[in-house]
Design a protein that fits this description.
Layout lengths: L9 E7 L15 E2 L2 E2 H9 L5 E6 L3 H5 L5 E2 L9 H11 L4 E6 L9 H11 L4 E5 L4 E9 L3 H9 L5 H5 L4 E5 L13 H13 L12 E5 L6 H14 L4 E5 L13 H7 L4 E5 L4 E5 L9 H5 L9 E5 L8 E5 L15 E6 L11 E4 L3 H16 L22 H10 L7 E5 L12 E2 L9 E2 L3 E4 L10 E9 L13 E5 L11 E4 L3 E3 L4 E4 L9 E2 L10 E3 L7 H9 L4 E5 L3 E7 L3 E2 L10 E2 L2 H10 L4 E8 L3 H14 L2 E5 L10 H8 E7 L2 E2 L3 E7 L2 E6 L3 H19 L9 E6 L10 E11 L2 E6 L8 H6 L2 E5 L11 E6 L3
Parallel strand pairs: 1-4, 1-6, 4-5, 7-9, 10-14, 10-15, 11-14, 15-16, 16-17, 22-23, 30-33, 30-34, 31-32, 34-38, 36-40, 39-41
Antiparallel strand pairs: 2-3, 6-8, 7-8, 12-13, 18-29, 19-28, 20-27, 21-23, 21-24, 22-26, 25-26, 35-37, 37-38, 39-43, 40-41, 40-42, 42-43
The structure holds adenosine monophosphate and magnesium ion (MG).
Length: 801
């Protein structure tokens, strides 16, 4: 037996660079299994086993990038197979070994690395490859990066066969016969369904990320992360959880003291010191060579057998769910707008309005935060149900449906970054998004001037005891300055907006003076030096940021820009949005209706909603439910627009061909979202364009647009404030609601007796468009809410106002 060496540094490589031919050309890493893309299963399984992760992908790079690991593409074009992915990974890996795994087999043994490493050592080989007892599984392999020149030479000869390359080296076979299910991969839609079913019927341990939930606490320093953690720990402990805490420390972090034995061992040069007593065990390991630890790297040290939850402080950029701690008084920006992993905001300002996909938590009530964590954890660990039934809109929360928050998170995280900027004359910039910050070229006002009609004088000469007389030496008008200087005992008659004459710094309003007929005024005590003056730069200082990039220009901004003399601004190019309606029953207005036909109203709703966002609109009319017309329309739309919207045909209707056509043309996920109205939604890309397939029912179209499409369009247009403003109102109606899905009821909000009150706007069926036009707001009933009784406070989102 060879002496076992410690496991070296390893980069896990997820091979998602294939063409997916047998899946109709779909990107297999993004195929969904029980509502989650395959790549997420593998990331979760790899994180604890390797030091870092690389994703090898040849398309949809933006979507993979959202996991915050490097995404690398083959150097060889045209999908040349796994060896091309190996080579690409070996070129960028900064570890000694890579562990390769295919993206289409969602299971991975938790000891994959150990098994491969042990085989490599025992058989004194260069490469270790998995063997399932019957055959080699060549893509599950541990390969030293030092073999890159050999692989490159092999590829340069035009060879692509993996076993031929392996044949040039000493290969150890690692026995994986006990975990053969990890080699079941998805090549056809039937296999996808079959694997999804076994996944949902087997125990939770098969979905690795649910084994040990990991939750981050993120914030700017000084926000009180550590204090919060120390408050949470006892609460979570008393709920029976065993906790592991990971903290990212500064580089010279030290917990050991001079004089302790452990310190002496370490000083003497030990790479690891493990202290063990009957009470606790501590491991200190030198990080050599010094390098920033990765969360995946340090998670290896957590003992999974004695933890039910890992809480992480720091590692702000890792892709784990997080609670953001936010104290507005610190003046630091919020993190969640740029981090789709934030699930809740713990703040000391409960008046703060947070977007609906976040839970607002009171930083001063750690017990409520602990409760939130407990609920989140049990939700995560809930085994998927095996019961199969025909899903319908009547179900409060059907199996495999996505929460609204998760759908939003996925959409927002997968948006590409746009967009070229355009110069626009000031007036045309109204309603557009600023591409660059506006820095003030001057002070506003650019000279000190009077805020009132009165008399300008020197503040130092104001009377403190008696009255005092001042000689009026002239007049200053707006646009007509007084030219001389004002000395002691003198004043200048001044009008609002007039520049302060030289020598003056104070204005006394005319009502506080007594004007004599001798050319003097008199005034008494009670005046303050410096009063009634607008200082130069008081509104806007030269060099300060007047408007940030990403701000949508409103009428007041136009005025501010005009006040700075700015004639032209850079705005983000408006998005081009194409849409059409699908359905054989639809007719455009102007055509006669026969039985069973309806006028297409969705295009009008979309037109109106899009118009308010200042996008360029391309209305493509009604498209018949037949594959050729749908394909032609989708292709035309995706070639001309940044975003394509359709309505209808994404639910289970028999004659709806759009799903098949979409699967052929694009990378589309079909979701069932736990909302009412608006359950089915398709989202993805068609060609270069982003695609949203909205439901057919008119109210559902508007609701899904407001909840999912509008924030995405705003973010895509680089707008920073894309979350809707929600306000609280007292509900006056009884609103029936089942827990398990987010519901949007149409409401009418008004102010009555000094309070905002909302009542429901008539019948709430998802085809009842009139409720939408009668109403002026959506009443948002969160997923966990049950029936609302009159008098309860609800959140509403305004529209039509
Ligand atoms: P679908 O999702 O295609 O099954 O459509 C669901 C319902 O919405 C059906 O009653 C359709 O007739 C209706 N619908 C679909 N598209 C439109 C539209 N553009 N205008 C009005 N109603 C529509
Ligand atoms: Mg239809």
């Amino acid at each position: 037996m060879t002496k076992q060496r410690a496991i070296p540094q390893i980069s896990g490589v997820i091979l998602a660079g294939g063409r997916g031919s047998r899946m109709g050309g779909q990107d297999k890493g993004l195929l969904e299994l029980n509502g989650r893309p395959l790549v997420e299963y593998l990331l979760a399984a790899l994180q604890p086993q390797v030091d870092t992760i690389l994703i090898n992908a040849n398309r949809n790079q933006a979507r993979y990038q959202h996991y915050h690991y490097p995404v690398i593409s083959d150097e060889l074009s045209d999908y040349q197979g796994p060896l091309a992915g190996f080579a690409a990974a070996m070129q960028v890996a900064n570890t000694d070994y890579i562990l390769t795994i295919p993206c289409d087999a969602p299971e991975l043994a938790p000891d994959t690395v150990t098994r491969l490493w042990e085989a490599l050592q025992e058989q004194q080989a260069d490469i270790a490859v998995a063997h399932d007892g019957e055959r080699l599984q060549p893509v599950h392999a541990l390969i030293p990066v030092s073999l890159l020149p050999s692989l490159q030479a092999f590829l340069a000869q035009g060879d692509r066969k993996i076993d031929l390359w392996y044949a040039q080296h000493r290969v150890a076979l690692a026995d994986f016969s006990a975990c053969r299910s990890m080699f079941r991969n998805i090549n056809t839609p039937e296999e996808q369904t079959a694997i999804a079913q076994t996944f949902s019927s087997t125990t939770k341990t098969q979905i690795p990320h649910t084994e040990l939930p990991i939750l981050g606490i993120c914030a700017w320093s000084g926000s009180g992360k550590t204090t919060l953690l120390t408050e949470l720990i006892p609460q979570l402990k008393s709920a029976g959880l065993r906790l592991a805490i990971i903290k990212h420390g500064h580089h010279d972090l030290d917990i050991d003291k001079p004089g302790k034995d452990s310190y002496r061992f370490r000083e003497a040069g030990a790479d690891q010191v493990l202290l063990a007593s009957s009470k606790r065990i501590a491991l200190m390991q030198e990080n050599t060579p010094p390098q920033e630890p990765t969360l995946a790297g340090v998670l290896r040290f957590i003992n999974r057998d004695s933890a039910d939850l890992v809480l992480v402080e720091g590692f702000k950029h890792s892709a784990i769910p997080k609670i953001e701690v936010y104290r507005p008084s610190l003046g630091k920006p919020l993190l969640y707008p740029n981090d789709p992993n934030v699930i809740a905001l713990a703040t000391d300002d409960m008046t703060l309005v947070v977007p609906p996909h976040l839970t607002k938590l009171d930083l001063n009530q750690p017990d409520s935060i602990a409760n939130f964590i407990l609920q989140w954890r049990s939700q995560l660990l809930k085994p998927s149900t095996t019961i199969r039934h025909q899903p319908s809109c009547a179900d409060p929360r059907e199996p495999n449906s996505l929460s609204l928050a998760e759908a939003r998170r996925r959409i927002m995280a997968s948006l590409p970054t746009l967009s070229p900027a355009l110069k626009r004359p000031l007036r045309d910039a109204l309603g557009q998004v600023l591409a660059d910050a506006i820095i003030s070229p001057s002070n506003v006002p650019n000279y000190a001037n009077s805020a009132m009609d009165g008399y300008a004088l020197r503040g130092a000469t104001l009377p403190h005891t008696n009255t005092r007389a001042y000689r009026v030496i002239g007049t200053a008008l707006a646009g007509q300055a007084f030219q001389g200087t004002c000395w002691h005992g003198e004043c200048v008659r001044i009008m609002t907006g007039a520049p302060l004459p030289a020598g003056t710094d104070t204005v006394v309003i005319q009502e506080h003076t007594e004007v004599g007929d001798d050319g003097y005024i008199r005034l008494g005590t009670g005046q303050r030096a410096g009063q009634n003056v607008r200082q130069a730069g008081e509104d806007i200082k030269q060099g300060s940021t007047v408007l940030a990039a990403g701000h949508r220009i409103n009428p007041a901004d136009l005025a501010v820009l005009a006040s700075l003399g700015i004639a032209e601004v850079s705005v983000v190019r408006p998005l081009r949005v194409a849409f059409f309606s699908t359905g054989d029953e639809l007719r455009s207005i102007g055509e006669p209706l026969t039985e069973g036909q309806v006028y297409d109203s969705n295009r009008y709703a979309l037109y109106g909603l899009l118009k308010q966002l200042n996008v360029d609109i391309l209305d493509m009319g009604v498209v018949r439910d037949d594959p050729a017309s749908l394909e032609a329309a989708l292709q035309q739309a995706s070639q001309t627009a940044d975003v394509v919207l359709t309505s209808g045909g994404v639910s289970v209707g028999e004659a709806d061909y759009i799903k098949t056509v979409l699967a052929k043309l694009g990378q589309i996920n079909f979701w069932k979202i736990a909302i009412k109205p608006g359950r089915p939604l398709a989202f993805g890309t068609v060609g270069q364009a982003l695609f949203f397939g909205l439901p057919g029912n008119p109210v559902a179209v508007m609701v899904t647009f407001l909840q999912l499409v509008e924030p995405a369009l705003r973010k895509l247009a680089c707008e920073t404030e894309y979350e809707p403003l929600l306000i609280d109102a007292i509900c006056q109606s009884r609103l029936k609601k089942q827990p398990g899905r987010t519901e949007f009821q149409r409401g009418i909000i008004k102010r009555e007796a000094g309070k905002l009150r909302v009542e429901k706007a008539g019948h709430q069926g998802s085809g009842v468009l009139s409720s939408m036009s009668k109403g002026n707001c959506l009443i948002i009933l969160p997923e966990e809410a049950a029936t609302i009784e009159p008098g309860d406070v609800v959140q509403v989102q305004l529209f039509n106002w």
